[in-house]
Predict the structure.
Amino acid sequence: MSKRKRITIQEVAKFAGVSPITASRALGNPKLVKESTRERVEAAAKELNFLPNFAAGMLSKNKSNMVGVIVPTLSNSIFADTIQALTEAIAPQGVQLLIGTNNYSMEREDQIIKTFISHRADALVLTGHTHTDYAEELIRNFEIPVVEIWNLRQGRDFACVGMSNYNAAYEMTEYLINKGYKRIGYIGGLLANNDRSEDRLRGYKQALRDNDVEFDFSIIREAEFELPSGAEAMRSLLTLSDRPDCVFASSDIIAFGALIECQNKGVSIPDDIALAGFDDAVIGSMTKPGLTTVRIPRRQIGLKAGNIVLKMLQGDKDISLVNDLGFDLAIRDSA
Amino acid sequence: MSKRKRITIQEVAKFAGVSPITASRALGNPKLVKESTRERVEAAAKELNFLPNFAAGMLSKNKSNMVGVIVPTLSNSIFADTIQALTEAIAPQGVQLLIGTNNYSMEREDQIIKTFISHRADALVLTGHTHTDYAEELIRNFEIPVVEIWNLRQGRDFACVGMSNYNAAYEMTEYLINKGYKRIGYIGGLLANNDRSEDRLRGYKQALRDNDVEFDFSIIREAEFELPSGAEAMRSLLTLSDRPDCVFASSDIIAFGALIECQNKGVSIPDDIALAGFDDAVIGSMTKPGLTTVRIPRRQIGLKAGNIVLKMLQGDKDISLVNDLGFDLAIRDSA
DNA sequence: GATAAAAATGATACCGATACCGTTTTTTTT
DNA sequence: AAAAAAAACGGTATCGGTATCATTTTTATC
């Protein structure tokens, strides 16, 4: 494409009348260089429009200053918020984020991890704890620091930042029970390889058990993280002869789909059926009725993960493995 | 960090009993190599867990297979959707996306562009047409192909993919006029360095003019792209003695803020005041009342931009500069 | 079966920065 | 002012691939 010769640090050095290595130091490690030469080199760099070739630096320094992050999707704003915050945390330190979306597919995740390793990312940020054996082997082989976000697990090698999806689902379920709902249905996000979904379902079940409410498989549904899928699940629940008086959806997106379905069917929330969600999407405060849901520190997760990554890159070994950022219930009108 | 010696293509070559360059070809350009050696090299690569060092390849090939994209923010799902689609378009071709968010700041944009150039991104995707002179000079100097998204301009050097924000605002305004609203207020997104906002405001003004409606500066407000800011603008409009009977917000986020404000103040939409937005955020179909807005082909913008970028990377010169993907009005209950 | 053409492989140099170690210059010490 | 220490600078090698051109091997042609 570009035929014009690119300016290298050699040219800058020549222009400033110093050796390339001195120019390199002047630009990257000014303390090692006399003030006056630093100025000359910087002037030369500016004059010649020099921007260092990242690949070259990476090759010789053997570090990339890049961090790879994988989330299921950017279309769900909860992950977009986390990534936005992660970017804000690390970009000022000159660290570039590589972003991959796996669409809840383990295969895609493996693919992306390979790409990130090829790019020699200095660290990885992964969503959840569930990865293929192959992925974990790669990570071990290449000795890449990893931070897992959006869920917590004790006893793993990797640091994690998030909140207990189990506890959150447990508390919400208990809240619904205490509110007096007798028959609480559940619409869960896809469970396959998704520890957040699994933990939420477990929390729901355990809360029922601890409060002597029978678990009824017939009012459990599984849904994709899309409005129509949530709507469909709710439709199915509404047709039951002994329909639930309350539905707990394990994601706001699913809850919104369910909410739309109820409105379309003329089913009143919360009078005919109560509804609770999970995630606290911005929308939840704006629907009629407002959606009762679990508020998650999305941005804090990104910021904290970013800070941990930065510590890792500096070789700091003093990193707490489990970083619980908590959650709380956002009680509104829907349940 | 990692002390273990990384596997290089040299090792792979030795293991397979060929020269490094042959191994390189076997992996990257199999047609140049005998089938049997290709298999041996691939087996060796797999056996040794070889993943090529991207920086090295980049340095010698003088291309990065990376594309940089800059959007204002990821927290607004409209941009997240576009980026998601862009990723889907280029990732299968082995192109990695570098994502930068400038938070509507030109300075940040310059910074990010410099970073991307240092990374030797093969192409850039920028939001809108407004950049600093410095940025444009950099782009010219380094001869980087650029695609601009989310707005259209004739006569620029860069290809653009999007829709006419001017036309869209014009049509929406005309629709509101035809609907019978007499006094149509306007809450615009921040105008500074934002051609989308500017064009929308221009479209609104021109539609008024063409329909002999007087432009009244006193019912124009400017707002940030945040709910509270939209709410505040609406609050200000509501206090007017001759308040508008309709408000056109140049972004759904702002419109939602305005909607919340009206609900809190007991102002009925559309009876007391009508409301229209712009962007067609997913939420708009779920609020009560549903939000009348402009539907934008967010995902198509990402896909098309991705395809154009891929063509550019292949050196294809046959690229149409202005790619109008259109829009339409989503008429719901709010206006 | 000799010759030309095509396919497969290899040797060497190079991409652009910095690490490493050595040399020169300046400053400090006594 | 001589010796020692510190600061500044530079030569060379190197990171890990691939481009380029040369060479060898295989296949095709008549």
Summary: Chain B has a mean pLDDT of 94. Chain B is about 45% helix and 15% strand. Residues 195-210 of chain B form the longest helix (16 residues).
